[in-house]
Amino acid sequence: MDEHLKQRLVGALVLLSAAVIFLPLIFDGRDEQQTYTDVQIPEEPVVTLDVTKPAIDTEHFEEVREKVEQQRAAIAPSEESLNQAVETVPEPQPPAVAAKEDFRQIRESSGKEPVGIDRLAENYTVQLAAFSSRDNAEKLHKQLLGKDYT
Fold first, then answer.
1. Which residue, 33, 68, 87, 147, has most beta carbons within 10 Å?
2. Which of 75, 130, 124, 68 is nearest to 98 (CA)?
């Protein structure tokens, strides 16, 4: 069968099915049976406000405020407890000391000596790259060690 003839038959079939579906919806006569009723909407009511009286109950407000103040006083830390908390805070360590602690932990957990611990007080750490492959990371590490970067 010719391709052009197939396309014409498919198109005719689509139009015929659309007519079978939609024509009964259009010509079913439902519009003639609908009746409309008028609805009477009442006028907007007039509301007057007395602004001479406060909108809140002042007695109840005072009771609640007193309870809140009591709770705040019970929760608030005393000056002694604040002083004790300040005394227990450890002194901040310089970055080199903190880094030496990190290296010490690495050494204890892995059993290997981390590179660069001898000049740690003079150096800092910068992340140069992130790799999806460990081999690539090790290649860069070897290159940097060859250039005397720790």
1. 68
2. 124
